[in-house]
């Protein structure tokens, strides 16, 4: 079907005019039965309130506002969910704003996106002289939507050399970017997942005084750079307002992420070879830590027990086999099965686990509050209607002790297979 | 935390081993706003004291007054005899003075906190120092495992309680954050008895500071959830919907083995099984 909307103004006028003798005919012609939506003269969608609803069994007009019936009736003109975001390509940027996203887990984090939003603000401030946002990404990644996040140029440094923890190599690379492209600003996330550290290293190397913990950037004609930033100082007690420096370490939510435009994310390479760096810090890999020693608030994987757990030895065994940190609901703590410091919830610990397995926990609001920021929640419960099952991404209905025992068996089998593979190799 | 004080106090007088300098600053109590020993710096001192066969030196650069002295004596109360004080004017840039002092000392490992509790507190000072001295720097030191042949094998704290093992060439700077073991209490007697070794050093005044505007922290505005949708119905639904709008998968009438298999698959996809 052609995308062009052909309009007949006279027809539309008749449709709008309920008293016109040809009104019903025109309506019928328009869209099968009675059209209740059409494009008005100014390109605005018009609705006919008389044409909505249907005649119910008792001859009374019913209007279903849940949208089910409307959706079933509407396909007259299929409104394709078109990507309305505007495409922006910046051919010859006046300057560059470099961003080094953290890429925790191989994807742009929300913090990275906020930072890219800030970069766009800086780059687009003067429409006559648009800047380009350059993102520098190290190592392998799984991100596909760089353009949607507001990136014009993408420098992807991959290969053996860039995997692992190599702060010295990264700083030397960024220094190479500085020599090559001389970005006007360097933006890094002030995070514990790498950005904060890398940004400070870079600032020290470039001999620039950075602004750390920046949470607001505003245009300011009086400042030397045209921008002023507000940063937290003195352990979060003070706000320091100053001219925006070249190196900025910004906090999450420093700006709104890009949502209305799509950018080219054109891949670029450095013109010069990167220097060999004498590594004085050698990465010897991550160390397995005892999950029981990890504090509940930081734990990545929590197996949490509630009043539904009857076989406590089985539960503790399962936590050990899975390598999960133990948590508990208040009832389990009050009954003395678990120590107080393991309680999750409003009066316990607010956890931020990536995977939270709730075994025999009903999901009282005080408990659910504590797991708000968990990414994936798994519920094991007898009661299909309980709130934890509603919250869960995966719920298994059944007896907790049997399911835990089966899970332990499955994981042990998996471990044995892995061991075999390793032995064979 | 139980501390084996007798062991450490015996060992840190042993000068033949590693020479560790801890840079200490004056902290500020978050509630009473009194000057105190800074928490992260105190953890750094604790870390140094628990290292075997090391001699621990403390170094502070800053202005001299009774409040500051009381705070610095807080570190002495952890069982250390003396602290080196480099006198600087208020608002001075302490990096040149500290770099000079460290270059002159025989320190192989310098420990600092990650971020100060007063002033700009940007946490850049250790990096500037490392750049000035040309030493490697690592962050989030959680434990020193061993020191051998001019290198140190250390554990670095990562978010979510993870640890990474690193080998660094000495001399090096390491910062300590709150994932390091908490500091022992400061005892009044040793704090009183400890010696402050004062040096004078010319101050380089930090000029930029005067152009900055510093005020008590404002509350950050909360970000509103903006729903971009052309239809009012969608916008209303998004505004009125409960935050946890289901969408999960529910397995009922399954055998425990099938349920366990589903959970196992999710755990493996998320990569939490090791
Ligand atoms: C002021 C206040 C603060 C509170 N703070 C907290 C808090 O911080 N944290 C907290 O957790 N609670 C808190 N609570 C308590 C909270 O309201 C609930 O009482 C508590 O969370 C319920 O714990 P539960 O889900 O383990 O127990 P229950 O509500 O008894 O739920 C047990 C669940 O286990 C299931 N079950 C039973 N047998 C089995 C089986 N064999 N296999 C599988 N499933 C089974 C049941 O279907 C049920 O869903 C607070 C309450 C108040 C008033």
Provide the fold topology.
The complex is a heterodimer of chains A (425) and B (274).
Chain A: H1 9-16, H2 23-30, E1 37-39, E2 45-47, E3 54-55, E4 61-62, H3 68-73, E5 86-88, E6 96-99, H4 110-123, E7 132-138, E8 153-157, H5 167-181, E9 185-189, H6 195-206, E10 211-219, E11 227-233, E12 238-243, E13 247-250, E14 261-263, E15 266-268, E16 281-287, E17 301-305, H7 312-322, E18 325-328, H8 330-334, E19 355-359, H9 365-370, E20 376-381, H10 387-391, E21 394-397, H11 400-424
Parallel strand pairs in A: 5-14, 6-7, 6-9, 7-8, 8-15, 9-13, 10-13, 17-18, 17-19, 19-20, 20-21
Antiparallel strand pairs in A: 1-2, 3-4, 10-11, 11-12
Chain B: H1 5-11, E1 18-23, E2 26-28, E3 35-37, H2 39-50, E4 54-62, H3 66-76, E5 82-87, E6 92-93, H4 95-104, E7 109-113, H5 125-133, E8 137-138, E9 141-148, E10 151-157, E11 163-169, E12 172-176, H6 188-193, E13 195-200, E14 204-205, E15 213-216, H7 232-240, E16 249-251, H8 256-270
Bound molecules: flavin-adenine dinucleotide.
Flavin-adenine dinucleotide binds next to helix 8, helix 9 and strand 20 of chain A.
The CATH homologous superfamily of the largest domain in chain A is called: HUPs
Distance between the termini of chain B: 30 Å
- What portion of the residues of chain A fall into strands of 2 or more residues? 15-25%
Largest interface: A-B, 87 and 75 residues
Look at the structure and give the mean pLDDT of chain A. 84
Number of strands of chain A: 21
């Amino acid at each position: 079907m052609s995308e062009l909307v052909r309009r007949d103004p006279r027809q539309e006028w008749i449709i709008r005019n309920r008293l016109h003798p040809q009104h019903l005919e025109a309506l019928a012609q328009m869209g099968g039965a009675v059209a209740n939506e059409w494009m008005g003269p100014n390109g605005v969608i018009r609705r006919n309130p008389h044409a909505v609803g249907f005649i119910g069994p008792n001859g009374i007009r019913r209007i279903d506002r849940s949208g089910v019936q409307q959706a079933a009736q509407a396909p007259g003109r299929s409104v394709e969910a078109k990507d309305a975001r505007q495409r922006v390509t910046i051919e010859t940027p006046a300057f560059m704003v470099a961003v080094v996203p953290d890429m925790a887990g191989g994807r742009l984090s929300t913090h990275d996106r906020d930072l890219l939003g800030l970069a766009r603000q800086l780059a687009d401030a003067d429409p006559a002289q648009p800047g380009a946002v350059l993102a520098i990404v190290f190592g392998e990644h799984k991100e596909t939507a760089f353009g949607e996040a507001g990136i014009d140029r993408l420098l992807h440094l991959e290969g053996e050399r860039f995997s692992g923890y190599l702060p010295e190599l990264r700083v030397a690379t960024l220094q190479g970017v500085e020599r090559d492209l001389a970005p006007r600003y360097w933006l890094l996330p002030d995070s514990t997942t790498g950005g904060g550290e890398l940004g400070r290293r870079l600032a020290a190397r470039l001999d620039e005084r950075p602004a750390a913990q920046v949470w607001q950037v505003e245009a300011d004609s009086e400042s030397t750079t045209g921008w002023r930033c507000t940063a937290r100082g003195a352990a979060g007690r003070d706000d320091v307002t100053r001219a925006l420096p070249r190196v900025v370490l910004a906090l999450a939510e420093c700006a709104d992420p890009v949502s209305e435009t799509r950018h080219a994310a054109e891949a670029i390479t450095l013109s010069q070879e990167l220097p060999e760096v004498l590594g004085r810090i050698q990465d010897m890999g991550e160390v397995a830590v005892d999950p029981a020693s990890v504090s509940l608030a930081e734990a990545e994987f929590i197996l949490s027990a509630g009043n539904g757990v009857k076989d406590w030895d089985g539960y503790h065994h399962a936590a050990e086999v899975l390598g999960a940190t133990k948590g508990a609901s208040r009832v389990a703590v009050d009954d003395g099965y678990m120590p107080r410091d393991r309680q999750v919830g409003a009066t316990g610990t607010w956890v931020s686990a990536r995977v939270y397995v709730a075994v025999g926990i009903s999901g009282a609001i005080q408990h659910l509050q504590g797991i708000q920021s968990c990414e994936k929640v798994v519920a094991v419960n007898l009661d299909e209607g309980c709130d934890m099952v509603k919250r869960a991404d995966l719920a298994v209905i059944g007896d907790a002790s049997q399911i835990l025992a089966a899970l332990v068996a499955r994981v042990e089998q998996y471990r044995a297979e892995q061991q075999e593979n390793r032995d064979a190799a | 935390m139980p501390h084996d004080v007798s062991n450490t106090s015996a060992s840190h007088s042993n000068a033949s081993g590693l020479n560790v300098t801890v840079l200490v600053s004056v902290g500020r109590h978050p509630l009473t706003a009194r000057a105190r020993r800074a928490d992260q710096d105190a953890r750094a001192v604790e870390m140094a004291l628990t290292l075997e066969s090391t001699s621990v030196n403390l170094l502070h650069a800053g202005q001299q007054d009774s409040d500051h002295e009381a705070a610095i004596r807080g570190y002495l109360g952890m069982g250390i005899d003396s602290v080196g004080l480099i006198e600087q004017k208020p608002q001075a840039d302490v990096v040149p003075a500290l770099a000079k002092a460290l270059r002159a000392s025989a320190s192989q490992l310098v420990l600092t906190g990650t971020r100060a509790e007063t002033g700009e507190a940007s946490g850049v000072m250790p990096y500037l120092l490392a750049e000035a001295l040309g030493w490697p720097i690592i962050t989030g030191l959680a434990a020193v495992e061993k020191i051998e042949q001019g290198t140190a094998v250390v554990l670095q704290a990562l978010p979510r309680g993870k640890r990474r093992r690193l080998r660094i060439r000495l001399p090096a700077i390491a910062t300590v954050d709150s994932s390091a073991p908490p500091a022992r209490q400061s005892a009044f007697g040793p704090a009183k008895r400890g010696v402050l070794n004062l040096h004078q050093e010319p101050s380089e005044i930090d000029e930029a500071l005067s152009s900055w505007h510093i005020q008590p922290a404002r509350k950050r505005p909360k970000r509103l959830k903006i729903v971009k949708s052309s239809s009012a119905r969608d916008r209303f639904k998004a505004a009125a919907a409960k935050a946890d709008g289901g969408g999960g998968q529910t397995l009922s009438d399954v055998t425990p083995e099938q349920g366990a298999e589903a959970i196992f698959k999710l755990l493996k996809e998320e990569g939490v099984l090791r």
